[in-house]
Design goal:
Layout (H helix, E strand, L loop, with lengths): L1 H24 L5 H5 L6 H5 L5 H27 L10 H4 L25 H4 L3
Subcellular location: Cell membrane
Keywords: Cell membrane, Membrane, Protein transport, Translocation, Transmembrane, Transmembrane helix, Transport
Membrane topology: Multi-pass membrane protein
């Protein structure tokens, strides 16, 4: 199970980094005005329509992979197999001892042993 969790985590990180790079490479809406003044080099590299279709589709694919890997990680984290998989954090927690300041105990609640006082540990 840990192998699959690590594999999905690596897939999620790679898709996130690819998506960040693809978003940074894309040009905004105001970049078309710059193309009219001679900086339209993307047309020669990606064809006549430019890089908008290729980059936007690649970003959508990376976003889909990121979303699916996030759901897979959530599923794997909540459905672990093993002997202690039914226990929650609250089941494993040790109960806190009630202070000796006169606070009333909750009926039926288990009480942990209270630590020894400093006077009990001092040499006699």
């Amino acid at each position: 199970m840990q192998f699959w969790m690590n594999l999905v985590l690596v897939l999620q990180l790679l898709s996130a980094l690819a998506m960040i790079g693809l978003v940074l490479v894309q040009h905004g809406k105001g970049a078309d005005m710059g193309a009219s003044f001679g900086s339209g080099a993307s047309g020669s590299l990606f064809g006549a329509t430019g890089s908008s279709n290729f980059l936007s589709r690649s970003t959508a694919v990376c976003a889909t992979v990121f979303f699916v890997s996030t759901l897979a990680m959530a599923y794997l984290a909540n459905h672990r197999s093993g002997a202690g998989s039914k226990d929650t954090i609250l089941d494993k927690a040790t109960p806190v001892a009630i202070a000796a300041s006169g606070a009333a105990a909750i009926p039926g609640a288990p009480v942990a042993p209270v630590a020894a006082a400093a006077s009990d540990l001092a040499p006699k």
